[in-house]
Amino acid sequence: MLTREIDQSLYESYSDDIPLILKRIYAARGVSESQLSMALPGLLKPNFDQLNIALELLEKCLLEDKQILIVGDFDADGATASAVAIKALRLMGAKHVDFLVPNRFKHGYGLSPEIVKEAKRDKEPDLIITVDNGISSNEGAELARSLDIDVIITDHHLPPNELPNANAIINPNLRGCDFPSKNLAGVGVCFYLFSSLKTYLTKQGYFEKNNIQNPDLRTLLDLVALGTVADVVKLDQNNRILVNEGIKRIREKRCSKGILAILELTKRPVESLQASDLGFTVAPRINAAGRLSDISQGIRCLLSDDMNDARRYAQTLEEFNIKRRKEQTRMQDEALAIVEDQAIDKSEFAIVLYDESWHEGVVGIVAGKLKETYQCPSAVFAKADSVLKGSIRSIPDVHIKDLLDLVDRENPGLIEKFGGHAMAAGLTINPDNFKQFKGAFTEAITKHLKGTKPIIELLTDGSLDSAEITLKNAELLRQASPWGQGFEEPIFYGNFELVEQRIVGEKHLKCNLKLQGTNSVLEGIAFFQEKLDSKKVRAAYKLNVNSFRGNESLQLMIESIESSLDSKPPIVK
Fold first, then answer.
1. Considering only Cβ atoms within 10 Å of each terminal Cβ, which end of the chain, N or C, has fewer?
2. What is the distance between the alpha carbons of residues 322 and 495, in angstroms, rounded to a whole number?
3. Phi, psi dihedrals of residue 128, rounded to the nearest 5°
């Protein structure tokens, strides 16, 4: 367990109207007071490379009633980006706009030649717009252009050395792109394209000439918030503005009927919705369709204008999610058993597993579980026709996309294709190459870490005294949201006496804790935690506002709990 260092000069620079506990939190995250503003006009300006080319092409397609096809990705970021693109285009008068999402098991990822052929055959598009994919789809883009289909790529993934032959590419991570934030999710890039299109068309007098109401694209921010949180991108100020505005709209029920239907089904109170509810409740149900079947069910749920239709789609997504959880539990149990049976030597640095019965759509979640359990990069593979498809989840010390680049360069032909970013990647290999890949991958990580496995410890914001552990401070932290990747929700630690404990829901620990040296008894809950033998414990926790039947109370959401060591965690600089 480590404690964040507070930037004292930042702390002292904040105005007096910022509460002390928030000054401490913000100063530990290196955030200046100007960066705390969540006002929508504070969004960065859309100075993307090739933006004007895309806008002129889109205007032409709208004026000439061209067939426009959105090609998305099979996760929540891709689903929300698809819904944003379709809704935006319809608001701008597009009469012929449709979507097609690659089937994970049939087409693979991105604008593949297979999905282009299917699009040409079934949809006959004049323009394909990719959302949350396409930056590595060189073959697919080339085929589309040869078939007289124009292509606009919107993506946020890291570009390869050779870019696709698209009419325009909108991606903040293009080399030389001046857009200041490189952290947009796919849905964020898509939103920027269409908000830019609205501005462009307004200047051209398009809406007035065509008797179309000037669209309010803020109505799409609920979808932008969902996709941004789901894709776990860094919540810099720009992303926090997008997420904050979207959450406000959902709380006011001015949002997608599909989001409301999922929240209703899962009994999540809309009025007090947090970013974590999007990440842990809504997104997994959208993702479940893409993992086990076809993400188009999730897109249709998000596009529904009728609440009854949305409820039907939400129920279908819930059924997918139940199946996904069962499959995930089976695969995780099997994977953990395999690792426990292995002699732990180089496996301390990397885990690489494959089983013929495992499901291709769930390997990423299982890799994530292994990474969390063993604190090392983990790759999990499943059979997909004649190849193995794998997902890798990494740790902060290993940029996994760069490492795969290295493995690929040193072992030509070993990896058929791969892509990703610092913490996650996907790849395809020949089944005959599994053993060789496992060796090369493990060796590369061991070498990169110089034979020393990094100790990954929980990062906290220090301890609180009893006067600070209050419902008021929990409410302050809730109002300071959205929290997320790169702007982590505060975790505190303390030494407690375990007064009472019981298991609820078969696997969660509910307890009463007395803060050491005080008479202050607090209610806490630790998920997936067994009872403890020791009465003296150290707990890392979040301050949470627990709402029940209209009453609000303080609850400690316990992140970790163990026998007390009675020593302070070191400060991390």
1. C
2. 38
3. -105, 130
